[in-house]
Amino acid sequence: MLRPGAPAYANVRVSLGGTHEDNKVVRSFNVNLFAADGPAEGSIVVKAPAGGLAVAEAAAKTGYWTPELRNGADEF
């Protein structure tokens, strides 16, 4: 659970790595925010680094939110 206005961090997977013809380059993307026991609470637009990101839509996913930044990738 996160306090209102407190910083939060989440892993965002945009592809499974490698090059694939189904990947598309995006300049920004939405990250949806969900409540623990309810529907989506909203979304935020995240700008991609210069040049964009190669995204595989079938693999794209946001992990769970945490109150601190952690090293390594969480399983999701």
Structural features:
mainly beta, 6 strands, 76 residues, two-stranded antiparallel ribbon, 0% helix
TL;DR of this structure?
This protein is mainly β and 76 residues long. The chain has strands at residues 12-13, 24-26, 28-34, 40-47, 53-55, 61-62.
Cα-based radius of gyration, to the nearest Å: 14 Å
Class by alpha and beta content: mainly beta
Q: For the report, how would you describe the main beta sheet?
A: 2 strands, antiparallel
SS strand fraction: 25-35%
Number of helical elements: 0
User: Which parts are unreliable, with pLDDT below 50 for 5 consecutive residues or more?
Assistant: none
Total strand count, please?
A: 6
Percent of residues in helices: under 10%
**SSE order in H/E notation?**
EEEEEE
Widest sheet, order of strands: 1-6
Shape: elongated
pLDDT averaged residue by residue:
77
Q: Report how far the terminal alpha carbons are from each other.
A: 18 Å
